[in-house]
């Protein structure tokens, strides 16, 4: 595991167009600049990364807390499943069911979507406003495995609260830290 920070894409970047299969429902989900009617949280996650495992219950709580607040969530796993079979679609499905995730969990088999987002690590978070412009990218909160800081999702929650209330999202944002995305050779 190589500790990797997110790349902090420029704010205002347009949401990449993509379509992937949801590992739970089996349906294809499409997203892009013309498809949003409300803000979208895009999360690059996986099953085996200790940084994701550390916050996965917090992600569940966050999604439940914002379920009725005009925000959509989607998670994507882009890790190479041949090298990391623990991140294969069947394991992703098990993770989503175990955690009660109701948002789509998409499998990026070609890794093209991760490249389009310039995603670097798991977890990696991107928030787009209803006009599909990036308003937040970075960490869930300051908690990391072993640092004894509680998992709250405070950074992501602050961005979502500002966006929902029509306020400007603070540009003081910190990179996420986690395992590097497992790229195909």
CA-based gyration radius: 15 Å
Nearest-integer average pLDDT: 95
Number of helices: 4
Total beta strand runs: 10
- Class from secondary-structure proportions: alpha+beta
Shape: globular
Q: What percent strand?
A: 15-25%
* Main sheet specs: 7 strands, mixed
Q: What percent of residues adopt helix (DSSP H or I)?
A: 10-25%
Describe this structure in words.
The chain has 4 helices and 10 strands; from the N terminus they run ββββαβαβαβββαβ. It has helices spanning 50-65, 89-99, 112-117, 154-164, and strands spanning 3-5, 18-22, 28-31, 40-44, 72-77, 105-107, 121-122, 124-128, 134-138, 177-180.
Compact description:
With 185 residues, this protein is α+β, with helices and mostly antiparallel strands. 24% of the residues lie in helices and 23% in strands.
Topology summary:
Blueprint: E1 3-5, E2 18-22, E3 28-31, E4 40-44, H1 50-65, E5 72-77, H2 89-99, E6 105-107, H3 112-117, E7 121-122, E8 124-128, E9 134-138, H4 154-164, E10 177-180
Parallel strand pairs: 4-5, 5-6
Antiparallel strand pairs: 1-10, 2-3, 2-6, 4-8, 7-10, 8-9
